[in-house]
Structures are given as structure tokens and as C-alpha cells.
Write a structure and sequence with these properties.
Pantoate--beta-alanine Ligase, Chain: A,domain 2, alpha/beta, binds pantoate
């Protein structure tokens, strides 16, 4: 497995492969890799001849009181996992390589980034859009894959790529879950054993609310009751629990087109997010 630390090294490898006629896929990550990330790698592998995984804990997508400093970092373990998984190149840029002295550009995507996590984490999606635009432009892979677990992020990235004519195909990949339904996430490592037992309620209650909305109940009522049940289950605070149009993320009460139920809630000091499709 090759390792690149600078945009120039990344670009050199990707363009050399592309000159040989090979398709290159990118999986952007913040490290602390788990099976969810490996499923993204497998998805890229289906459509690309070479797989690049970037690991960069992006400071600009964390708010001042968020978990940037305690976000799990395990570079050596990540690298050996990537080697085993058949990754062809790991891209590990430094903060100075990504945000050199004098860096002054921020990309903001309106519409899909508003509401939901956009309300609770001001500036988060600008940080994501800026770093993802940089990663895509630095590497110019043929495709890049992002997990549906961060569904709003996926919609922001699709919009960004469309609006800025970035010539990279964006794919979404389904959320990987633990046996009890909890969505796999690097942040699950923060949960205490007690919190871990409560955590799957987020998935369970989203699932039940989704069924009720599909059966004709108003989304606001189903979500209100699911939020109440989450608090009863042991969650400390609900950031949001809403049904939105699957593409535009506009709020919907009685969905007629594909929709998504999305939730974010706090279990102790850990913020969990999840979402499910409504058919
Ligand atoms: O989903 C993530 O891990 C991050 O938000 C991403 C897309 C790698 C950008 O830093």
C-alpha cells in the first residue's frame, strides 16, 4: 500500500493510474476505522480498479465546544487495517498541508445544509464542504463514496459537486449496523457500557416512527412520540427527529415521494445520529 502525505503525491499516484486506464475511487474518512468504513472501501472496489482512503481529522468541521481534541486517533491501527483490506493508497495529509498559512476560502452550500445538523452544528457543513472539495480536487479520482449514516452530509456533497462541476461521481453506501441495530460509528467508542445498552433505541424508535408515517400518521406526531420515548429510554437530549424529502431535505408531513427519517440525540456526552429511508 502506498502512503501519500501531500496533495502532489496523491495527485501523482492517481493520475499515473488513470493514464494506465485504471479507474480510481476515494473513500474520505477521519480515521478510527471500523467495519462501516471497510464496507465503503468494498463498495468502491466494486466500481474502481484502485482504492484510495484519506484519513484527516478535519478541524474546520468541529465547533469550538465539540469533540475535535478527543476524536479517536489510531493511525497505526488504521494503516494496518487498510493494508489488510486491500487499500492501494492511504492519503494522510497534515493540517498544514490541507490548510496552509493564509488559507482563506470557505465553501458554503445552502438549502440541504440548513436545519437538522446544520442548526445544531453551526459551520459544520461549511467545514465538510470545504475539506471534501479539497480532497476531490487534490486527487481527482473517478468516484468517491460516502456513508448514508451521515445522510445530510451526503446530500451536501452531492450538491457541492454538482454546483462546482467537480468531475467526480459521488456514491452513497448503506449504513452498517451492529447486531442490535446501532449504526456503526467511530463515536460509539465514547459510550459507557450502560450507554451502549441504551444506544440502539435510536434506531428502534426511528424504525417504529418510520412505520407509523408509512401507515399514514403525520410525521410531526410520530416524531414527537419517538422523541418522548427516546428520553424515557435514557437519552439526555434530542437535537432533532424529523421526516424530510430524501433529495431536497425539505420537511414533509405526509410523504408522497421518497423520504427519510433522521434523528440526532445525546446519550451522556455522546451525540448519536441515524436515519432510515421511508418508502
Ligand atoms: O464523514 C466523515 O468522516 C467526514 O465528515 C469527511 C467526509 C471525511 C470529511 O471530513
Amino acid at each position: 500500500m502506498l502512503i501519500a502525505a501531500s496533495p502532489a503525491e496523491l495527485r501523482a499516484s492517481v493520475s499515473a493510474w488513470q493514464k494506465e486506464g485504471l479507474k480510481v475511487g476515494l473513500v474520505p474518512t477521519m480515521g478510527a476505522l471500523h467495519e462501516g468504513h471497510l464496507s465503503l472501501l468494498a463498495k468502491v472496489r466494486e466500481q474502481a480498479d484502485r482504492v484510495v482512503v484519506s484519513i484527516f481529522v478535519n478541524p474546520t468541521q468541529f465547533g469550538p465546544n465539540e469533540d475535535f481534541s478527543r476524536y479517536p486517533r489510531q493511525e497505526e491501527a488504521d494503516i494496518s487495517l487498510l493494508k489488510q483490506a486491500g487499500c492501494d493508497l492511504a492519503y494522510l495529509p497534515t493540517v498544514a498541508a490541507m490548510y496552509p498559512q493564509g488559507f482563506s476560502t470557505t465553501i458554503s452550500v445552502s438549502g440541504v445544509s440548513e436545519g437538522l445538523c446544520g442548526n445544531c452544528r453551526p459551520g459544520h457543513f461549511s467545514g465538510v464542504a470545504t475539506v471534501v472539495a479539497k480532497l476531490l480536487l487534490q486527487g481527482l479520482p473517478d468516484l468517491a463514496v460516502f456513508g448514508e449514516k451521515d445522510y445530510q452530509q451526503l446530500q451536501v456533497i452531492k450538491r457541492l459537486v454538482l454546483d462546482l462541476d467537480i468531475p467526480v461521481r459521488i456514491l452513497g453506501a448503506p449504513t452498517l449496523r451492529e447486531a442490535d441495530g446501532l449504526a456503526k460509528s467511530s463515536r460509539n467508542a465514547y459510550l459507557t457500557p450502560e450507554e451502549r445498552k441504551v444506544a440502539p433505541s435510536l434506531y428502534r424508535l426511528l424504525f417504529e416512527a418510520a412505520k407509523r408515517v408509512q401507515a399514514g400518521e403525520a410525521a410531526s406526531l410520530a416524531c414527537f412520540e419517538a422523541a418522548k420515548a427516546l428520553i424515557e429510554a435514557g437519552f439526555a437530549k434530542i437535537d432533532y427527529l424529523e421526516v424530510r424529502d430524501a433529495d431536497s431535505l425539505a420537511p414533509v408531513e405526509h410523504p408522497k415521494a421518497p423520504a427519510r427519517i433522521l434523528g440526532a440525540a445525546w446519550l451522556g456526552r455522546t451525540r448519536l445520529i441515524d436515519n432510515l429511508p421511508l418508502t
